[in-house]
Design goal:
Helices cover 26% and strands 21% of the residues. With 378 residues, the chain is an alpha/beta fold. A 10-stranded mixed sheet has the order 1-14-13-10-9-8-7-2-6-5, sandwiched between helices. Strands 15-16-17 form a 3-stranded parallel sheet, with helices on both faces. A two-stranded antiparallel ribbon has the order 3-4. It is globular.
């Protein structure tokens, strides 16, 4: 595997500019006795987090921080960078939702269009980082790097991991030639499509499965081992701006001894909310629009769920398959399962986990618009 070492030469201008957007998470958390995890996420502002990166090494170094703490000195790896900070939110990422996604995407789009900004860093909780990363990958033409980062220990822990992750993210965002939506954690740089949280508490909780990391950050240098990711915009920006909510897509897991009852309940709910018998004034937007089936193995589903999928499609619900397996997506074409593929609308999210497939299907439905024949049906 070829390794390419990339350093910030600052050739394009005297000082490269990285915009850092704060959204909360454990990286901004503080310990609190009696809290569910022993701490509360989203307590420390982004300016204070950046301030922690200053004054760590002796000597006057060229560097600038706007929107953060005045004075201080940046660590050597960040010398020659201008850092600006904006607080977008202060939440636990388990509570991430569409309104914040849209605001975050809007701010990233503005920065992407700003010639004075070279890269973007987003501090985020680890729990839904992969979902936010994939959403941004799917709605933005990221010709500059957008690097999400996080921590597994709160900011006031005796040995917090957040500062190093934040440094690595800034180094990646400032790297000349870098592009795409990425995630920096524990010295590795992952792509938005492949990254998945695979461990609940380890300091290196993410994996990119068979694809592996895109790059590594070591001693202030970025070592890239595969190509920067290309963006794959799934939905026009005008649809994103106008949407009060994403189309509702639920995830159904196929497993041993499974039944189709949950799917049938969703079908009946849709018929009640969207049909003539629904309560007056009930918004049809609350009805389910799509289903992602978290399939076993290489995209197989239990026969009871297979039958229920057919009923869901007949009710106008779009269906997409993804695999429960964590290290790789569905390999195709599959053989010997034509009837099952037909029942599942013949569509599979070959490279996506179920949570990312949910975002992909929701954006596809949003792009198609109401009444489009692609929105469910057979």
């Amino acid at each position: 595997m070829t390794s390419i070492t990339e350093k910030n030469t600052g050739a394009s201008r005297a000082m490269r500019h990285v915009l850092v957007l704060g959204t909360g998470g454990t990286i901004a958390g503080c310990r609190r006795e009696g809290a569910a995890q022993g701490y509360v996420a989203g307590q420390v502002g982004i300016a204070a987090l950046l301030g922690e990166l200053q004054g760590q090494l002796p000597g006057e170094l060229p560097g600038e921080l706007t929107g953060g703490e005045p004075g201080g000195r940046p660590p050597a790896a960040l010398a020659g960078l201008r850092l600006s900070a904006q607080q977008i939110a202060q939440i636990d990422s388990k509570d991430m939702a569409w309104p914040l996604w849209r605001v975050l995407a809007q701010r990233c789009m503005q920065a992407l269009a700003d010639d004075a900004v070279d890269g973007i860093v987003i501090t985020h909780g680890s729990d839904t980082l992969e979902e936010t990363a994939f959403f941004l990958h799917s709605v933005l033409d990221a010709r500059k790097p957008i690097v999400l980062t996080c921590a597994m220990r709160p900011a006031d822990a005796p040995a917090p991991d957040g500062p190093q992750n934040l440094r690595d993210a800034i180094i990646a965002a400032a790297a000349p030639g870098a592009r795409g939506v990425l995630a920096a954690c524990a010295g590795r740089l992952h792509g938005a499509v492949e990254i998945s949280k695979v461990h609940p508490w380890r300091l290196d909780p993410f994996s990119s499965g068979d694809a592996g990391a895109i790059a590594y950050v070591h001693a202030g240098a970025l070592r890239r081992v595969r190509a920067w990711p290309a963006s794959a915009v799934r939905c026009p920006w005008t649809r994103i701006e106008q949407a009060a909510a994403l189309p509702r897509v639920e995830i159904i897991c196929s497993h041993a001894d499974a039944g189709g009852h949950l799917i049938d309940l969703l079908v009946r709910e849709r018929e009640r909310l969207c049909g003539t018998g629904g309560p007056a004034g009930t918004p049809a937007a609350h009805a389910v629009d799509g289903l992602v089936i978290a399939a076993t193995g290489n995209g197989t589903v239990h026969q009871s769920i297979e039958a229920a999928i057919g009923r869901a499609r007949a009710a106008g619900i779009a269906v997409l398959r993804a695999t429960r397996c964590g290290e790789a997506g569905i390999a195709g074409p599959r053989t010997g399962q034509g009837a099952q593929a037909d029942a599942c609308d013949g569509r599979c999210a070959s490279e996506l986990s179920p949570v990312k497939a949910r975002i992909a299907l929701a954006l596809d439905l949003l792009a198609a618009g109401p009444g489009n024949p692609e929105n469910g049906g057979s």
